[in-house]
Fold these 2 entries.
Entry 1:
Amino acid sequence: MNQISTRDIAPRSAGAPARQPLYAQVKALILRRLIDGVWRPGTMLPSEIQLGVDFGVSQGTVRKALDALAAENLVVRHQGRGTFVAEHDTDRALFHFFHMVGENAERQLPESQILSCRYGKATATEASRLALPKGDSVARIRRVRILGGVPAIVETIVLSEALFPEIGRDGDLPNTLYELYERRYEVTVARAEERLRATSASAAVADLLGIAVAAPLLEIDRTAFSLDGGPVEWRLSLCETTTHYYQAELV
Amino acid sequence: MNQISTRDIAPRSAGAPARQPLYAQVKALILRRLIDGVWRPGTMLPSEIQLGVDFGVSQGTVRKALDALAAENLVVRHQGRGTFVAEHDTDRALFHFFHMVGENAERQLPESQILSCRYGKATATEASRLALPKGDSVARIRRVRILGGVPAIVETIVLSEALFPEIGRDGDLPNTLYELYERRYEVTVARAEERLRATSASAAVADLLGIAVAAPLLEIDRTAFSLDGGPVEWRLSLCETTTHYYQAELV
DNA sequence: TAGTGGTCTAGACCACCTT
DNA sequence: AGGTGGTCTAGACCACTAG
């Protein structure tokens, strides 16, 4: 075995760019396999020891790489069972990708009612948010989300049609879209950025939510990114916040 | 040295409660010293090796405890220099406790203009938020915060006067209050919870911000907690969000 | 019982900072 | 030169899960 402490898994090119720690290289290699779909969501990864053999590093180094991936919620570790590629189940949606909670901070996944699913050419804003050429085909999904029996959120979701061909054509859009992206389109949402503003209800939105025109609404402007770092979804949510609020944690 | 792998640093009582890993026990012991002020913010902790000797564990176990504390931003580690108790400097305020950013996502700490600092008996809401008996003395600070030269936030801050005696009496309130809490009152804000809603400007707030009455505003309702886990500050911020937005990251 | 991740140790060496 | 945290290894044992 290679005795040199600081080294590379693959030989570096002549340019000799910034050297990364071994565990970071291992992490990048595993991430690459996740991106390439070598290991699909829900499947078990090889054991730490096996990965160590594969990469020519010790178990401890593999462990550090896997711990880092687990910290980003890309893999899930279970003592006695193994390490698994993270899936977008309802729990993940509820605790990681949905921050609206009820008065006593109780979490509850909203139901969804699809209003429409239309196709068109990306506007300048849409193209910018999705890193597409302007005019590319996009799908636009509109829906109302119901929290505690009350219509509380009006949402517009914009997707590249190239990435999600025929999405919504047969009107079978589930409540948690990220599961659909993952299972049917092999697109894994890894993280998202949200921009929050206060706005007021248009006549159309007020009607959908059963509130007064110009009532204050919380606007959540979300861009979701896939494993490879590219934006894959743009979502604009208008939330009624008299019975629910957006919860954030600062550390 | 003790050869038993799973053991306790201090002898357990007869009841034998849930056993924690050694590194978690070490972390709790270090945290206890931080709470008790044994090591003040900004000071250097003993080295990993020294702590290992003190607690009777290996350097690796101490390292895992310190890494966990660093992940919570309670200590800061510098290669070659040492491990230091985290301080509330402007960087921490900007990147961890202030989520309003400008249009191009640039961060900028707002200036502050104190409107008033008054004292009174805690209302039911205030008492609940600060875990005080109703009627306890509280200080209420009101200020306007200026972002990019424009008044953008009206803020009310409520503090227990027992915890922050005479705060603001001499009108010397700095821009970043958490530094003051830390230096003068030995209260370290360790984390905070925020609840966001949309609301609309009252006449008084509209006047302060130079906007129309009933204009939409983002309300941030923050409770800040000290190292020992108790609430120490309640803050209600009303933010104008046409030129700035609240930024959140989802993982 | 076998296999997995979780904990803990001991020791080596590296990278960085201060003196 | 000496001290610090950062990386990496090897090996032991524990805790949990499954067949």
Note: Chain A touches chain B through 33 residues (CB under 8 Å).
Entry 2:
Amino acid sequence: MKNVVMLENLKYFNIGQILESGQVFRFEKISDSSYLLNAKQKLIKIIQQQDSDSILIHNTTVSEFDEIWSSYLDLDTEYKHIVQVLSQKDEYMAKAIAFGEGIRILRQDPWEMLISFIISQNKAIPQIKQCIKNLSQQFGDLIDGYEEQDKMYYTFPTAKQLARASEEALRDCKVGFRAPYIMDACQKVLNEEVILNDLYICTAEEAKNKLMGIKGVGPKIADCILLFAYSKSEVFPTDVWIKRVIEGIYFKGKETSLKVIQDFSKQYFGELSGYAQQYLFFYGRENQLFK
DNA sequence: GCACAGGGCCAAT
DNA sequence: ATTGGCCCTGTG
């Protein structure tokens, strides 16, 4: 088929689970077996039938797949090993993995993750998606050559594009009190106070400190950026959901400080903390556990 | 109708 | 180290 790539024999890959696990915001569910994904200045449709280990990617080519999507979808990581090690930790972890065995941690754009997770604070996921859509429509570029339900799709705005926005224009996108944070991020990236591309080779701790120099970026948001953009799997982003899950499972339901939870994950999950967090987050949130 | 929380962080105690 | 407030919106 033209402009369609098919992958077969894909293990540990469920596009629904990947997209619905809270790591990515610019996608739409078309049906149970079909998702539209806006990333890398492109728009693709991914189709995967229930429990199938093959997928179709529409609107791409084999060379573009090799160049972009293979890495983005984290297909070079050996999830068999991760699943095996984590499943042996305890019965809850085993359950969480059995529930979300098709999760992968995408390799997304650092700038987009920075702004997206600044927006995420004190918002629900549907609101976050709406804000990002607003910003893209206002300040990104139209993605042409693709029509889906007569809707228009836009790239995520670059730092340069977003820097042109006034605080008022940002607030019109419903980002609220985060508008000054977004402006500070634009400033620090444009004047190279923070060079996002340099953080790939930094340790998680170094990168975290640099990111937290930006207003509105605290420990949780920095960890999300480290995990979802830079694949630093030793971090354990601790939000209200995962906090309740960890307290419920490992601390007998008792209120536990962030520091204790961080120390626990580091000690218990080690280099696989980030993956453990994704499985537990998805399991807990989808099933409304420990609410 | 209105109180509350939602993938937190900042600034003032 | 601890705590109130925050833009905005969907939910009970």
Note: Residues 122-124, 126-127, 130-131, 171, 174-179 of chain A lie near DNA strand C (CB under 10 Å from a C1').
